[in-house]
Amino acid sequence: MPRGELRIYLGAAPGVGKTYAMLEEAQRRTERGTDVVIGFVETHGRKHTAAMIGDLEQVPRRSMTYRGVDFTEMDLDALLARRPEVAVVDELAHTNVPGSRHEKRWQDVQELIDAGISVLTTVNVQHLESINDVVAQITGTTQRETVPDQVVRAAEQVELVDMTPEALRRRMAHGNIYRPDKIDAALGNYFRVGNLTALRELALLWLADKVDDQLDAYRAQQGISDTWEARERVVVALTGGPEGETLVRRAARIAARSKGADLLAVHVARSDGLAGADPAQLARQRVLVESLGGTYHQVLGTDVPAALLDFARGVNATQLVLGASRRGRLAQVFSRGVGVTTTALSGAIDVHLVTHTEAGRGRRTAGVPAALSRRRRLLGFALAGLGMPLLTLLLWALPDLTLTNDILLFLAGVVGVALVGGLWPALVAALGGSLLLNWFFTPPYNTLTIAEADNLLALGVFVGVALAVSWVVDVAARRTREAARASADAQTLATVAGGVLRGQRPLPALLDRLRETFGLRAVSVLELTAEAEGRPGRAREAGAWRIVASVGEAPATSPGAGETAVPVDERLTVVLSGRRLEAADRRVVEAFAAQAAVALRQERLAEEAATARPLAEADRMRAALLAAVSHDLRTPLASAKAAVSSLRSQDVAFDAEDSDELLATADESLDRLGRLVENLLDMSRLQAGVLGVRATAIGLEDAVPRALDELGPSAADVTTDIPADLPAALADPGLLERVLVNIVANALRHSPPGRPPAITASTHAGQVELRVIDTGPGIPEDQWEHVFLPFQRLGDRDNQTGVGLGLALSRGLAEAMDGSITPETTPGGGLTMVLRLPAAAQTRSEEVPE
């Protein structure tokens, strides 16, 4: 059975017209004769959206009851039985009512597609899993319903329904999105121009990445390797040399000229696995690339120009940035170099050859270490000096051998010397052997003259073969040593990286691993003080450096106090104490030093974030407070103002009953306003840590009735069960009453008619436990902590029930009295709030019977 197709209408925010556009497409397909059925469409009371449904067939929804509340969901079974060609299913990220076949609606859609039914659906960018946290950071609202990105990316078509922020806000102000009572709060919170602009950019960028994926897939299917300049991508080639930072910054400037351009850095490593670049330089350049918003890549290749171009074409790059050759002029005569070769083969890719201070100076490589140890080289020279004469005496004693045999035996001797001592002893053996062969075994004897041309050729071949074999043996020994060194460095780097990743504090873990690896006494990271910065002379003074991190005993306090100092940049230096390192080890230490700088920066950013978090939280709370009370303060004020103005009016004469009703309205509104202000003040004191608590022994049989009286007639039906022998609780009477009022009010608000809440009390483990039980819809367990956040309400959709401070304030007050509030599920459905307080010590002695 062929699978159905998925078409998604993506929007940056609610109200941009996704559902309307989806229904327009459904109507067009119906007019073309396609069998289209509506499985689920949510109009949110918008008349234009409802009118677009028109005569489209709708599958009846399925009714479900969860915790005493009736819900309607899409009837998946009925839709599968109907088997239309196209099904219209709104709100892809919707969470189904518990008890449904699937937890999420996108899973329902997948089943429809597997059954061969094409689906039209909608989703907002804030519901995409990968950017859900980014949206929460921008808007201050966390979306609980998300859909995996791969589900949306797998759609055959994703259409962006776009609208400018100003147009969307006008649509909101005209009442085309939310009810009039929610417009002010929405415009002041989620639908601010800055939020909508950021969401719109997120949607555009996400869709651009989706289009990129489709383009890459098409190019791969069609075998297209030529560059298509659909989007600027700048690739900068790094060799690990000192010019790398110049190239990266130049490439970043090129990329910045095009909005949305990508920056990629690539290093071509040798395919033999041997070290060819400075790891410390590459580490620093990688950090620079990532700080500029680019990505770092590493590929293997023997032919550097071919590897660079293969990578550039693979990522559909439009521009390639290379550094001017560091080789000298003589070297450039014999070989064109990477830059010239790459430019000649680049095709449609623009190549920028950037000059730098290192251009034309030649490659500065560290001194090449000897392939063999000094002892083996001395042994090789000894064999060359003694072995060749001894071999001559041996061959002189065997007069029956021909010149050819003599040459082969001398060649074997040279190879033996090369295996023992390397290149230079072998060269001495080859030259000495050629002279001995010429003097003793080549006619005319005892002279360096050679009579026959064949003998001259034989001696020439001998010398050439001896030199070639000596060179090959020396290179093989050198490569073996380099490979062993590279393997050891790689293993060390891998061990250090693993230790850092597993540690909770990256910088100390990195330094400690570095100290253990090289057997050091101490490792310290020094930073130049602000007073000494920019003054080279003062950098050598005592106190010019300060330790920002260290491990081991007696760490160095200045670069000169340790055995090895590795500068990271102008301000940071890593100092090693305990022993001096070999030159080969320094390259690895420099890589570690670069990573230490990164770890230090991450720690400081984390500290700054921790410092800024309370300020950001306070700012968020202030913004939420202003937005929330904008409605909740106006409502009681407006009601009280209207009642008092009516009573003072001279135009209308009110009878006693009407006057009493107006006075009751004003009184109720002012009471509500008073409770709101008290809650706000208490929450502010809690946040500032200045709430005064005077704990005393108080009986719940006295506190609960006072709280119910505070709530008035609405709490008349609340049932209580408080044992007479219940010990007193240790609490502040005023704060306890506030806690009880808020908890019971919340239970009353969510209790169904005719089923009032109940209050029970008990004691356990030295605590008094009071339970406020309701049989309402309850709260899913994964949202229990969410309801205790300030300015939050379950669903966050009702602007008539206060600013959402009640439970947050109640928990804060309870914790201030050394108590706690925890939610539990009521058996049979509903929510139980459990208030736990310390039990007061018994102050009365028990009477002992006579």
UniProtKB/TrEMBL annotation:
Protein's UniProt keywords contain Mitochondrion: no
Protein keywords: ATP-binding, Ion channel, Ion transport, Kinase, Membrane, Nucleotide-binding, Phosphoprotein, Transferase, Transmembrane, Transmembrane helix, Transport, Two-component regulatory system
Source species, domain of life: Bacteria
Subcellular location: Cell membrane; Membrane
EC number(s) on file: 2.7.13.3
Entry keyword Membrane: yes
Cellular-component GO terms for this entry: cytoplasm; plasma membrane
Catalytic activity annotation: ATP + protein L-histidine = ADP + protein N-phospho-L-histidine
Membrane topology: Multi-pass membrane protein
UniProt-listed InterPro entries: HATPase_C_sf, HATPase_dom, His_kinase_dom, HisK_dim/P_dom, HisK_dim/P_sf, Histidine_kinase_KdpD, KdpD_sf, KdpD_TM
GO biological process, one term: monoatomic ion transmembrane transport
UniProt main location, coarse: membrane
An example Gene Ontology molecular-function term: ATP binding
PANTHER family assigned to the protein according to its UniProt record, in alphabetical order: SENSOR PROTEIN KDPD
Name of the protein in its database record: histidine kinase
